[in-house]
Amino acid sequence: MNIDIITLFPELLEGPFRASIIKRAIDSKYVKINFHNPRDYSSNKYKQVDDYQYGGGAGMVMMIEPIAKCIKKLKSKKQYDEVIYLTPDGEKLNQSISNDMSNKKNLILLCGHYKGVDQRVRDLFVTREISIGDFVLSGGELAAAVICDSIIRLIPGVLGNECSALSDTFQDGLLAPPIYTRPSEYEGLNVPEILLSGDKNKIDLWREQISIERTKKNRPDLLKN
Ligand code: ADE
Q1: What average pLDDT does the segment 39-66 reach?
Q2: Disulfide-capable partner of 141 in 12, 19, 94, 222 (CB 3.0 to 4.6 Å)?
Q3: Four-residue CA torsion sign, 87, 92, 98, 104
Q4: 105: left (phi over 0), alpha (psi -120 to 50) or beta
Q5: Is the CB of residue 49 less than 8 Å from the CB of residue 176?
Q6: Pair 39, 66: CB distance under 8 Å
Q7: Given the CA of residue 135, which atom of ligand 1 is nearest to it?
Q8: Nearest CA to ligand 1 atom 10
Q9: Distance 72 CA to ligand 1 centre (A)
């Protein structure tokens, strides 16, 4: 997979890609991530990339021209499956969207900053708009990091034990059951007896029951579907 990220602040994204599973996925060539800065595409003498809003209002808007140039250049070299704009007014990210994205070959992620991008960027180039939740971040970069993490770990081969992604919370529409490791007793708190029983069928049943109870309690909305 190839992910091209358009951002004014690549340094906000570099850290999360330099450790753990994403780093391994990059090192093993499951994924290639490239940064592109709209500032490098500004024809303005001062490398300006944002301007005041027409009609007035607080906050600057990212101009269309540098972003359009950048996207056109990327598209001249590759065919992209999606051009995704990270924005709090997009569709809310969930596991099903991440599963879908993890099967794509080439993605562009566009990070807005300040108030966001000129609407015409969205009208002309963006194929999908994604929010990571009902809150506003300073820009799309941290949202892009979240999306990258959630899709890269799903690429077959990236996780050592592929089953471990299949047993994630949300993969079956339920929250994951509680997990334990050694010691079996800590300050009087014991690991549930059944997990020590060795009876795989009973353990699976117990996990499913607890998953359903957890989902009912914490996320009843998931059970409605
Ligand atoms: N940019 C700012 N806030 C965001 C959010 N919640 N999700 C995605 N992109 C954003």
Answers
A1: 96
A2: 12
A3: negative
A4: alpha
A5: no
A6: yes
A7: 6
A8: 87
A9: 24
Quote the pLDDT of residue 168.
Answer: 84
Dihedral sign for Cα 134, 10, 146, 20, please. Answer: negative
CB of 116 closer than 6 A to ligand 1?
A: no
Name the nearest CA neighbour of 173 among 106, 220, 111, 115.
Answer: 220
Domains annotated on the chain, with CATH: 2-152 (3.40.1280.10), 167-224 (1.10.1270.20)
> How far is ligand 1, taken at its centre, from the CA of residue 112, in Å?
9
Distance 216 CA to ligand 1 centre (A): 28
What gap in Å lies between CA 143 and CA 36, rounded to an integer? 16
Amino acid present at 214: R
Environment class of residue 10 by beta-carbon count within 10 Å: exposed (0-12), middle (13-18) or buried (19+)?
middle
> CB of 146 closer than 6 A to ligand 1?
no
Give 98-145 pLDDT, tens digit per residue: 999 999 999 999 999 989 999 999 999 999 999 999 999 999 999 999
3-state SS, 98-151, equals: HHHHCCCCEEEEEECECCCECHHHHHHCCCEEEECCCCCCCECHHHHHHHHHHH
- Please indicate whether residue 132, judged by its CB atom, sits closer than 6 Å to ligand 1: yes
Mean pLDDT on 22-42: 97
